[in-house]
Structures are given as structure tokens and as C-alpha cells.
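## Example pair
The file below holds two records. Each record gives the amino-acid sequence first, followed by its C-alpha cell line.
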Amino acid sequence: MIEVRNLVKKYGDHLAVDHLSFQIEAGRIYGFLGPNGAGKSTTMNIMTGYLGATEGEVLIDGHDILKEPEEAKRHIGYLPEQPPLYMDMTVREYLEFAAELKGLKKKQRSGEIEEVEKMVRIKDVEHRLIKNLSKGYRQRVGLAQAVLGFPEIIILDEPSVGLDPKQIIEIRELIRKLAKNHTVILSSHILAEVREVCDYIMIISKGKLVASDTPENLERMLGQNNIVEIEAKTTPAEVRRILKNVPGIERIEAQSTGNGITKGSICEKKGADIRESVFRAFASAGIPLMTLKVSGTTLEDVFMELTQRDTVPAAFSKDTGWKELIPQAEETEAVSGPGQETEVVSGPERETEAPETADAEEVGTAEADIKEMTAGKGEEQDAGNL
């Protein structure tokens, strides 16, 4: 449905997007993750036609977003991090304006606006000025604009930013609802949100795609052994004695916490599940086991591992084709020799957050935003009726 090929975006000497390639398939909720300045918003703005790429191409259902903008944008609904809203319009006026620019037929507009208002729960505020709405309601109005016309692809850049916990839960529910009939691409810094709602996750760092898989597979690929944490009513020496013959244990750490309780951390061998064996060992010894729980790799662990290092961990690069974050020899003029470390030419420049700022500057005014998303279809179709 969406194919990004060898995408490059430069701001002067700063490389915001570095030969990025991936595919988006229909019927999934995609999470787009990365630290500030990684190139997420730049990539989204290129995918939706807001920005031009320095190199590469983006195909939306086979249509190049820059060469065939009208055809490509018919398939996309976009909510930028800062929704393109007119503060002096009522909610209803704004949605009618957006529907006209999107080229919706007059007979369909009223019905579709009503349906979208009910979907995002803004029907009760449709006659209020947007400037008088709360942050949460403004975000919903922006989302309504993106969904209007029911495009196949909905792209949401930080949809829950600035919302309270109740509003965040409502946005999550709405995203799940949209996913039943749309492909959703969600950019967020809230890892718990992405973990909960997304089927597939792409992690970008320093303009490169460093991992792409389901949340479960990403957590498994990091390859760290699970830690079984226990609390037992005995001494550390007795804990070690009881666990001495339990198979699948790599190492044991035990220390007394007072009141006759010992807290232990048991590192499993890779692929082992020792919980039942540990339980039975303590039961056989007649020692009360107060706590038994597993702490494994989380999405946060994966994110930190992939975005804080200069190279992709072996678990992610082996048999997956992920490139190292350090530029390859043929891509840079790095100086290296026997026993020397490679000097990365463009490292310091990549740490700046310039692309995120540049995104906001490129977006421009609200009217330009909506017109860009629709490529002027509404003006062409209804010029005689205005």
C-alpha cells in the first residue's frame, strides 16, 4: 500500500533521513518510534506530500506522492502533531471547509461529517468556536479532518500529545476502531501506548530504520535471558541449596532483606522456563515461597538498546538485513587503520533536532496544510458551486 524507497532528506549539511526504505501493508496498525531528531516527522511529512525528498520516492498505492499528488493523496488522511485548525471557525464550519477542499460531493458531505463527528465524539461541540475548545477536543477535531472522506490510510503524528489520561484512553479506543477499516500509522513517544495498540513497530534512529517487527518479536530478538525474581522465607544459603539441582539456571543471586526473608534473582538459560521447577523445589523443601515473577525484555529495553548505541545489536542485524548505524566505508570518508577506531564523519551533526523544527516551519499555515493534503481537488470540483 505504501512503499518508501531509498528516502533521503537533507537540511544543509544535516542528514535528517538517511536512505530509508520500508513497506506498509494494508490492515495493520503501525507504530513509528524514534528519539527526538531521529527523522520521524520529516519522514511522515514526505510520505504525505508536505515536504519534498532530496532523494528517493514514496509510492502510495502505486502513485508517486510528488509526481502524482492528487491520486496519491486520495488514499491518505493526515493528522500532524499540530493540527491545521482555524480558531475562528466553529467545528462544523471547519469540517465543511475541509470536506470541500477534499473534493467530497455535496450530497455526501453532510452525512459523512455527521458520521465522523459521532466517531470522534465531537457532535456535542460542533457549533462551538475551535478557539474555545480544550486541547483534547481540538485534537479530536484535527483527527476528524484526517478521517473525513474515509481514506484507506490514516497517518497520526503524536495524536495523544498534551492529552489527559482519560483522553489518551479514548484516542486509543478510536485508533483501534479506525484500524478495522483503515491502515493506521502512529508516531508516538509513549512506548506503552505503541505497545498496546500497534501490531507492527518500526524504530528509526539517526535517519535510519534500525528494526521492524511485531512488539513480541522485537522483545524476543534482543535476546536477553529472563530473570525470575523470588522471595522466600529462609536464608540465602538455603535458597542456593534448594536451587542447586534445578535445570535451566545460569546463575543465582540471593540476599537477605531482614525478617527472615531472602530475595533472589535467578537468571534462566536462554529458552528455558524454570518457574514450575523452582516452585516444586521450594514446595518439596517445605520452604514458603512468597513471590515468584518473571522480568523479561520490554519494548523500552529494545528502544533504548537500538537508539542509544552506534551499531545495531547482533540479534537485530543477523539474518535481518539491518544496517549498522555507523555509515559504511563506501558511504563516508572515515579514517581507519589497523587497531584504530573508525571516525564517523557526520556523527555530531546528526545529534541536532533541526529536522523536527524544520518540519514545523515547512508545514506553514492551516489553509496551506489542508490544501496540500487534498491537492486542490475541492476547488476544481466545486468551483462552479462556490
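Second record, same layout:
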Amino acid sequence: MTAKPPSTAPRASSPQAGPSPASAVGAQAASAGRKPTSGSAAASSPSTAAASPGHTATSASNTPANALVHVENLTKRYRATTALRDFSLDLPAGHIVGLMGPNGCGKTTLLKILAGVLADYSGVVAIDGHAPGVATKKIVSYLPDADFLNPTWDARQAISVYSRFFADFDAKKAASMVDFFELPTNRPLSEMSKGMGEKLQISLVMSRCARVFLLDEPISGVDPATRDVILEGILREFDPQSLLIVSTHLISDIEHFVDYALFVKEGRILLQGDADDLRAAHADSLDAIFRKEYR
């Protein structure tokens, strides 16, 4: 069932547009902000975030009022390769956005920039009016496309570690998701299947009280039945006051799940719009549209 939040539709301003416990959690701490201690400077929320070298900071005053995520003329290069080209986009809260495209089209690069784990880009990026940095890491929960948990941990240990590291982590919600996914609580990750490991990681990421959730290929590499269960679990915990962006190249599996679609090709927005509107305009499914556009 597709979520249909009542907020305004996203828009783009351009139509073309095993690790140690510390290092394992560090992959997430980089995108979430460590739980502050009393009196710590990390507990403050500055009105603007300092920009990393090579990109522009922005403030709430020059970000569209309803845009939780604002991207303007974003370009990111890896030496001779351009991953994102003049990419512009505004996304309000209350949507489940499918970031769709083949491997290598720029999806992961975009999510890493939004998560604040990749810098050295040109253009403007803002999350709730702040450039990616300390302020945004407190409201962004990020699932990378690679495993990040210590393989010796079981579900209980992973929940315990997250509870210590992230101030907005809801351990009860995580335990509820683990139960929903029917995961063993005393079996180490190294003895779980890939699907089980993916479910545990999603349980942790979705149990933060974040405003923006970024999931990079959450159903890649698992069987179709597991994909359905994972998507059901994510939708079950979706807060309509937040924004969820899910990247994938498996369009048919995620089509029923998203209410807004962004098709990316060679670092640019190829096509975007409300999922139902796109299906009506093209008289076809999102998967069929994808297959036609990416021939």
C-alpha cells in the first residue's frame, strides 16, 4: 500500500536536473551525531552550519519555506568522473521518495552528501535550512549501502550500543522492529543470513527520531519475499512528519511503496513527479517507464 501524506508535493528547481565496536558505530555516528553529554557544545543547534571546503553553506532564510531537503546546482566530481551534474531539488516532509536509477547514476553520492559524510562539492545543500554538518546529523538517519555493524554483535548488543551513541534512538521501537522481523536476539550477526542482517540494520536506522531518513539500496541482494517484509517494516514505522528517501534500481519491488519518484541518469534528474501522476501521464507503471527511459 502506498503512503499518501497530505503535505505539498516535492519539486525540483531544475527539470534536468568485522570492524571494532567503535568503528562499526562510527559509520553511523558520522551521519547521526553522537549522544551529547550534559553541558556539551554538541547539544546546541546553530542557525547555520559551517561549510566544508568546496561547498556553500546555506541558512533557513534562503531555503524554500516547505523544503526539508534543498539542493541547488549541486555538482560532485571524483577526479575525471562527474557523479552529479547541476542537480537541483526541493523535498518537503511527509513523503516517501523513490530515488531510482541504474548503478553508477549518482544515487549513493547524493545520499552521502545529504547524510554529511561526503563533502568537497559545489552548489548548495541544506537539510532543514542547515548545510550538512553537526546540526543536520542530529536529524538525519542514514543507512549506507554497505554493512556497518560489528559481526560479533547480536540484536540486543546492537540496540544497546545505539542507545548509548544516539540521543534520539528509541530502543523500544528497535526491539519492536526486531520482533516484527522475527530476528533472533541472541545470535551474532556473523551467524545471520544477509536478509536478517539487513533487517537488523534497518531496525536500528528507522528507530531514531529523525526528520530525514536516507536508505541506500535497503532491499538489494535479498530475495523477493524478504524485500516485501523489509518494505512493510519500514512503512510500519514511517512518521508522516518526516521525509524518507529510498534509493534503488529494483523499481518493480518499490513501486507500491513510494508516493514520489525521482529518476536519475548520469548524475542528472531525468524524470520526476508524484508516482500516481507519472503512471497516469505515461499510462504505464513506474517500472515500465524506467525500462523505456533507460534503454
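Notes on the second record: The CA atoms of residues 56 and 244 lie 24 Å apart. Residues 224-236 form the longest helix (13 residues).
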